[in-house]
Q: What sequence folds into this?
């Protein structure tokens, strides 16, 4: 071996020694290796014998060090200096299961539970039909088998197979329910109360196990069994007090569970089951003689689920869809079904006076709910729940109006309510109230134009004109409130106060024109027509001339206000109205009016247009100067 080969070999030994030393330091830092011994450096050859070593490729890595790299902010410099082949990063674990895993572990599991329960039921039926064993033996086999499955499931739970353990518990519980049902319904071995208590015991045991194991799935099994119990022990007779008392106890127990555990699905399952059982009983057994007692139970059910969204405990971190529904859908559904249920209990002869007060009572209840604190809901859920309660109160007040009134009072009620809500929305800075106010105002305008019946033909002094006056006043209040309010953020641009004020002014002008048109019609009908077809032509001529004159006068007045207030918005409305007047005079009045009225119509229109043109040409109000206009 010549000197050059010896020097290259010694250099490779030194490089390998340094790399091994760095790897040992890394392993020692992780506690895998004790403190390593310092590397022994190979003696360097004398200077006169050392020649420049040719570039030698680094030795191939015999293995990859089984270490994981810490975050850069916590990693020592000497660790980052390790060669790249010594550093490996672990792949991030998946948070969600694949579709295959969900199908195999969850979907097949639930189908398997259903199949086992069906199999047990068919086995019991087969045993019943063939008389293989006596009635008492069959029931005992079912009870022992169900208890054994529940006990066996605990072994799997301790070994970490929770889902499979819950499946066995579900099968065992179902077997116990079916066995008790067979003992009561098929063989009459036990009485109804005994079967009822036995099924309650099974439900209570499942609830207890779900609590100590913190298993929402077991709680759902317990609730499913608890809600099935009244059906299994039913004798076909009306036991209202026993049934509803049992449901109340079950609902209160669930309310306690969802207040202590984040089990929002349990709340929906219980509410659905309770509603279905109550509906089934009502269809089958309810009579007006039971109205008082039934109303008390309905009130208890309604109050439990009305307070539940404020008591339910939601999951920490990201809320699930069930959590969101618990504070959004459930309050609205409970409010709607509760009102329908109580309205159903009312005597049909008392509905006309009691129905509106029922809606007012619901509105008062939800206004009172706004004063209660939100316990257990997410920080963002409290305001959302308060907003929903406020919306429910407004909706019930809106419902009370058509239940109590008809015709013009219905229209007036909605218009006044909309104006009051708009004032409250400005004061409280509530976008929700703003939207609800607009809905009420839209209902009022629709009723004013469509539902509002015809008035007597007495001009001006009639109910129709009074209703229009109320509508104009309501929108005047809205326009004033909106013009003095201020939008809080850019997110309000869709329903900005400025837009509401402008729309209100447009509606006011439109209502004035419509109201005046009705009164012009009534005046000339009363004065010249009165249903006599011989006078119809005169009536039409007088009415059309008056329409044209009013349009021109109103347009001139609106233009004057626009000049006075320096409002381009009002002036554009006036110009549009004058353009409509021009079209009407040249297209309609020219052929319909007599010569005298035709002359007056054209001269009046011409004089008005020349005056408007003169004001604009001379710019008497200095409108051309910048900054001299208001929107």
A:
């Amino acid at each position: 071996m010549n000197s050059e080969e010896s020097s290259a070999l010694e250099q490779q030994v030194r490089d390998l020694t340094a790399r091994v030393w760095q790897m040992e330091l890394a392993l020692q830092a992780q506690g895998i290796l004790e403190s390593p011994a310092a590397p022994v450096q190979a003696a360097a050859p004398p200077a006169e014998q050392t020649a420049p070593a040719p570039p030698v490729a680094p030795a191939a890595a015999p293995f990859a060090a089984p270490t994981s790299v810490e975050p850069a902010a916590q990693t020592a410099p000497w660790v980052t200096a390790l060669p790249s082949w010594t550093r490996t990063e672990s792949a991030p674990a998946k948070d969600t299961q694949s579709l295959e895993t969900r199908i195999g572990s969850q979907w097949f599991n639930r189908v398997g539970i259903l199949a086992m329960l069906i199999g047990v039921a068919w086995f019991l039926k087969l045993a019943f039909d063939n008389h293989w064993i006596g009635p008492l033996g069959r029931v005992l086999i079912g009870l022992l088998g169900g208890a054994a499955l529940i006990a066996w499931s605990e072994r799997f739970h301790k070994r970490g197979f929770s889902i499979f353990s819950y499946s066995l518990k579900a099968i065992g519980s179902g077997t116990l329910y079916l066995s008790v049902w067979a003992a009561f319904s098929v063989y009459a071995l036990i009485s109804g109360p005994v079967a009822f208590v036995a099924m309650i015991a099974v439900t209570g045991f499942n609830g207890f196990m779900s609590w100590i194991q913190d298993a929402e799935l077991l709680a759902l099994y317990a609730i499913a069994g608890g809600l099935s119990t009244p059906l299994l022990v039913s004798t076909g007779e009306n036991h209202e007090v026993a049934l509803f008392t049992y449901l109340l106890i079950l609902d209160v127990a669930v309310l306690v569970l969802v207040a202590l555990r984040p089990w929002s699905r349990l709340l929906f399952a219980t509410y659905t089951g309770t509603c279905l059982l109550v509906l089934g009983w009502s269809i089958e057994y309810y009579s007006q003689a039971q109205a008082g007692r039934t109303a008390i139970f309905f009130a208890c059910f309604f109050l439990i689920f009305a307070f539940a969204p404020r008591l339910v405990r939601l999951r920490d971190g990201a809320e699930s869809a069930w959590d969101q529904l618990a504070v959004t859908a459930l309050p609205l559904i409970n409010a709607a079904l509760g009102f329908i249920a109580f309205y159903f209990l009312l005597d049909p002869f008392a509905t006309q006076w009691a129905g509106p007060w029922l809606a007012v009572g619901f509105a008062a209840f939800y206004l009172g709910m706004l004063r209660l604190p939100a316990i257990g809901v997410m920080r963002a859920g409290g305001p959302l729940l308060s907003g929903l309660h406020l919306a429910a109160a407004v909706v019930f007040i809106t419902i009370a109006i058509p239940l109590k009134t008809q015709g013009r009072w219905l229209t007036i009620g909605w218009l006044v309510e909309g104006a009051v809500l708009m004032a409250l929305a400005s004061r409280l800075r509530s976008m929700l109230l703003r939207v609800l106010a607009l809905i009420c105002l839209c209902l009022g305008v629709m009723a004013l134009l469509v539902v509002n019946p015809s008035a007597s033909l007495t001009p001006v002094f009639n109910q129709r004109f009074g209703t229009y006056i109320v509508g104009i006043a309501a929108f005047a209040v809205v326009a004033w409130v909106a013009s003095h309010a201020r939008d809080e953020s850019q997110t309000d641009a869709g329903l900005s106060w400025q837009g509401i004020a402008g729309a209100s002014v447009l509606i006011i002008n439109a209502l004035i024109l419509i109201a005046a048109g009705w009164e012009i019609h009534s005046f000339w009908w009363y004065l010249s027509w009165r249903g006599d077809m011989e006078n119809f032509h005169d009536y039409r001529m007088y009415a059309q001339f008056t329409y044209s004159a009013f349009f021109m006068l109103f347009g001139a007045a609106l233009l004057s206000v626009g000049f006075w207030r320096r409002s381009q918005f009002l002036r554009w409305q006036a110009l549009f109205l004058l353009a409509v007047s021009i079209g009407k005079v040249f297209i309609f009045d020219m052929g319909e009016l007599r010569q005298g009225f035709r002359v007056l119509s054209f001269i009046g229109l011409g004089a008005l247009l020349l005056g408007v043109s003169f004001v604009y040409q001379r710019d008497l109000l200095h409108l051309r100067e910048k900054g001299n206009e208001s929107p």
Observations:
- The CA atoms of residues 106 and 139 lie 31 Å apart.
- Residues 3-86 form one domain.
